[in-house]
Design a protein that fits this description.
Elements: E1 3-13, H1 16-26, E2 30-36, E3 39-45, E4 53-57, E5 62-70, H2 73-85, E6 91-92, H3 95-101, E7 105-110, E8 116-121, E9 140-150, H4 153-163, E10 167-172, E11 176-180, E12 188-192, E13 197-205, H5 208-220, E14 225-232, E15 238-243, E16 249-254, E17 272-275
Parallel strand pairs: 1-4, 5-8, 9-12, 13-16
Antiparallel strand pairs: 1-5, 2-3, 3-4, 6-7, 7-8, 9-13, 10-11, 11-12, 14-15, 14-17, 15-16
Domain VOC: 5-122, 142-255
InterPro entries: Glyas_Bleomycin-R_OHBP_Dase, Glyas_Fos-R_dOase_dom, VOC_core, Xdiol_ring_cleave_dOase_1/2
GO molecular function, one term: dioxygenase activity
């Protein structure tokens, strides 16, 4: 009970067209535009539900909200009390925000790194199938996880593990921690960094063939592949990464393992079984022996 999964991510972006081109032409993800407030927002359709990624036109590139789905209204109230007891000011989302999310109830607070974190109940299923650009089916199947780097690592771990009740799956010295809220290996990873940023957001694909087709399209379309195809050591996922128009990475992956309550957290040592060669320096590279 409690938080069930990562539901959606909202971003303020300076170039919606570049994002839409990357998602559609390269990654095979359909995007629709809806009215929101005085403007519009582009919604990426990853599965049968309303959206998983929202792109808000802005003068700066920055995370707008990180949304978690909560099992029941009772659990939302319980987690709200835990947040209040821990010193977080919990607010209700507006009616317009709740409707956009496809939620029945919505609350939010600000995390130690300054991000708006939302807790929502309900998900609106608005389609029976996802419209894909030509040649891209079946494509993405959902939203997997994100990695948040920040100098406030200790406070973020306290929030997610002690207050929001995530479980530690594994870690790598000196400061990278993978946390789960369901059977998936992780829904969030927390890392130490001198400045706060989202390192990457992962888009789940149904098979290695889907990942491979996206990899071929990315190379053919000249997308900036920032980390080559490879397999992670800890969750065993096969993936590659592209640098998105807002400057951080999108991971295109499949095949991550699931873990049970008998899982024992451990240091998984090296980052990859094979591949995942970085175009730039890896901020989470394994320390030298």
């Amino acid at each position: 009970m409690g938080i069930r999964k990562l539901g959606y991510v909202g971003l303020d972006v300076t170039d919606v067209d570049a994002w839409t081109d990357l998602l559609g032409r390269t990654l095979g993800i359909g995007v629709t535009t809806v009215k929101f407030g005085a403007g519009e927002v582009a919604l990426a359709e990853l599965d049968a539900f309303k959206y998983r990624l929202a792109l808000h036109p802005s003068l700066q590139d920055a995370p707008r909200e990180l949304g978690w789905i909560v099992d029941t209204p009772r659990e939302l109230d319980r987690l709200s009390r835990r947040l209040d007891d821990a010193g977080y000011a919990v607010e209700d989302g507006s009616a317009e925000e709740t409707e956009l999310r496809g939620a029945t109830r919505l609350r939010w607070f600000t995390d130690p790194a300054g991000h708006r974190v939302e807790l929502a109940t309900g998900e609106a299923k608005v389609r029976t199938g996802v419209a894909r650009p030509a040649g891209s089916a079946p494509g993405a199947t959902g939203l997997g996880h994100f990695v948040l780097a920040s100098p406030h690592l200790a406070e973020l771990r306290e929030l997610y593990e002690s207050v929001l009740e995530f479980k530690l799956t594994d870690y790598r010295a000196p400061g990278l921690f993978f946390l789960r809220c369901n059977a998936a290996h992780h829904s969030i990873a927390l890392a130490h960094a001198e400045t706060t940023s989202i390192h990457h957001l992962e888009l789940e694909h149904g098979s290695i063939d889907d990942v491979g087709r996206s990899y071929d399209r990315a190379k053919a379309n000249g997308a900036p592949i920032s980390i080559s195809l490879g397999r992670h050591m800890n969750d065993k996922a096969i993936s590659f990464y592209v640098r998105n128009p807002s400057g951080f990475h999108l991971e295109i992956g499949c095949g991550g393992i699931e873990v049970g309550d008998d899982w024992v957290p451990h240091d998984f040592g090296v980052s990859d079984v094979w591949g995942h060669h970085h175009a730039e320096a890896n901020p989470f590279a394994s320390p030298p022996p």
